Amino acid sequence: MFNQYTISQFRSLKTPFYYYNADLLNKTLAAIRSSAEFYNYKVHYAVKANANEKILRTISNNGFGADCVSGNEIEKAIQCGFDPKNIVFAGVGKGDDELQFAIENNIFSINCESIQELEVIDYFAGMLNKKASVALRVNPNIDAHTHHNITTGLTINKFGISENELYTILSNRELYKNLIINGLHFHIGSQITDNTVFVNLCNKINQIQKYIYEKNIYLPHLNVGGGLGINYESPINQIPDFGAYFSVFHNNLKLYKIQQVHFEPGRSVVGQSGSIITKVLYVKENSGRKTIICDAGFTELLRPALYQSSHKIINITSETGSSVYDVAGPICETSDYFAKDIIMPETNRGDLIAILSAGAYGEAMASQYNLRSLANNYFSNELEAYRLKSNLIPASVEPEFLQK
Predict the structure, then answer these.
(1) CA angle centred on 193, ends 68 and 298, rounded to 5°
(2) What is the CATH number of the domain that holds 73?
(3) Contact between residue 265 and residue 32 where contact means Cβ atoms under 8 Å apart
């Protein structure tokens, strides 16, 4: 995972920084593509998970579409090679300028979340002398059984329209003269690891579709969102089971005529390919607790502070001894912890620590709180190219404690 040469290169780089395994990212994209193509499914990468330009270009070069939640994301996606005809625009609070930008660029679909938003899109489309393609985001009241801050499909959440509103809109769709209402959109949450949740979603979609079809209304595309989780506990070289994920929808979703099914994965695409490399500043002991103070904090990885999430953390420069540690950052906030009570090799000032599974919602949520500088990012293929050019330590030589 981290060979001796890579670690020696890390020593020369200013920490903290994001490190991306380009080979794992490409293997993950290949796994998604082959599984999706088997069922003729369309995949739009959720840009909010990680908008690093090199990552976006890699994903667009692999033929994926983009799922955007801001005008700037749409603009960056286009700049990085995504075809506007494969871009969807979601979000409960789209600004006027963002909607106009989306309409002007003829994107595939604007996922609409309220009747008032529908009216606004219709107005701007008319003003621009365009026909805007729209999907209606429905709140199916499905519990994703995940953290409450990343659950989006319950009626208490701010997202989507109710079933009653859906039927009202479809019954009066001729009022929206500048819109092409051609799809339904669902997204119920993130980091979902229980496939029965997706089965429940399929059953709900089937009920809604049956009612619509009985009213002789046909919507050619169906967007089931994203939400597939990743393995944070044992993440090394883990690619999510996309075959099982897509088969759930194939086996449970009832389609009408020739409906096209679209997906919006984010975390499952990039999560395992990224790590944060951070240096140990101090190891201190308070009331018998050993605390590692790193130079990375929640400015580099907000998830543990925001969602109480856990990431696997390894010391990549020590393999001797063992002790129980808390791992914290330098930010002047009590919530700035990455982990508590974890067993690690004996750790000292200057050691390098890797926080794994940080490819999603790490760099994308970075901030400059405390006026900290934004961390740099490096890719494995760049370091490998430099190794080959320098003719230094072979990549196959790994420390014993990393050979897992």
Answers:
(1) 60
(2) 3.20.20.10
(3) yes
- Give the model's confidence band at 190: pLDDT under 50 very low, under 70 low, under 90 confident, else very high: confident
Q: Please give the tally of structural domains in the chain.
A: 2
pLDDT value of residue 149? 43
Residues 236 and 137 in one domain: yes
Name the β-bridge partners of 277.
17, 354
Q: List 66's β-bridge partners, or say none.
A: 45, 87
Domain that holds residue 291: 4-16+272-402
Q: In terms of domains, do 260 and 281 share one?
A: no
Would you say 125 and 132 are in contact if contact means Cβ atoms under 8 Å apart? yes
Distances (CA, A) of 339 to 292, 342, 350: 10, 7, 19
User: For 4-127, where are the E strands, in sequence order?
Assistant: 17-20, 42-46, 65-68, 87-89, 109-112
Pairing of strands 65-68, 87-89: parallel
Q: Measuring CA to CA, which residue among 1, 24, 15 is closest to residue 238? A: 24
Residues 370 and 244 in one domain: no
Specify the pTM.
0.91
Alpha-carbon distance of 223 to 183, in angstroms, equals 7
Same domain, 255 and 367: no
Average pLDDT over residues 114-136: 97
State the first-to-last Cα distance of the chain, in angstroms, to the nearest integer. Answer: 8
Q: Do 299 and 346 fall within a single domain?
A: yes
Same domain, 74 and 180: yes
